[in-house]
Amino acid sequence: MEDERRTGGLAEILAEIQVPTPVPGPGQVLIEVAYAGVNFAEVQHRRGEFGAPDGPGGYDVPGLEVSGTVAALGSGASGPAVGEQVAAYLPAFGGYAEFAVADTDFVRPVGGLPLAHAAGVPCVYPTAYGVLADAGRLHQGETHIGEHLLAVSHREP
After folding, report:
1. For residue 44, what is the domain's CATH number?
2. Containing structural domain, residue 126
């Protein structure tokens, strides 16, 4: 299996390495990764500002969110079936790889959502929701905050 190893810094210094394909443990699934989400958490991880310095096996593979196809189930894994297209959150990273292991609690079917779009859902969607619901205190039926968010999003930095 190939994956991308963080060697410090930004994307230019990611190194492709060969590692064994991970094996899903109890309550986990093995996902053949189609897409990995790239957001600010990945940038921070590549800079060494976020996440563990070394992953399993002594190497560090960025990637908090992926989409792809379930390739295998660990013992006792329930939820998605082998062959099902899913999106997954990977709290221990590992998404910049051909295969990633995820706890079934963090794996959801994508339904009709294209895999390219689904890769950004596990981290980005909850973050956006949190900004609107928690920080923005937006409640059902309210629309006024949207005007303010649009205004802020169009401002020059």
Report:
1. 3.90.180.10
2. 2-153
pTM of the predicted model as reported, rounded to 2 decimal places: 0.76
8: CB partners within 8 A, 6+ apart:
46, 47, 48
pLDDT digits (tens, 9 = 90+) for 82-127: 999 999 999 888 898 999 999 999 999 999 999 999 998 898 878 7
Quickly list DSSP for 76-122.
T--SSPTT-EEEEE-TT---SBSEEEEEGGGEEE-TTS-HHHHTTHH
Q: What CA–CA distances, in Å, run from 47 to 35, 41, 55, 61, 91? A: 21, 10, 15, 13, 17
* 85 CB neighbour count, 10 Å cutoff: 19
For residue 117 the two structure tokens come to 């779009």
Listed residue (71, 83, 62) closest to 29, CA to CA: 71
Number of helices (H), then strands (E), belonging to the chain: the values are: 4, 7
Question: Kindly report the CA angle at 37 between 76 and 10, in degrees rounded to 5?
Answer: 125
Number of compact structural domains in the chain: 1
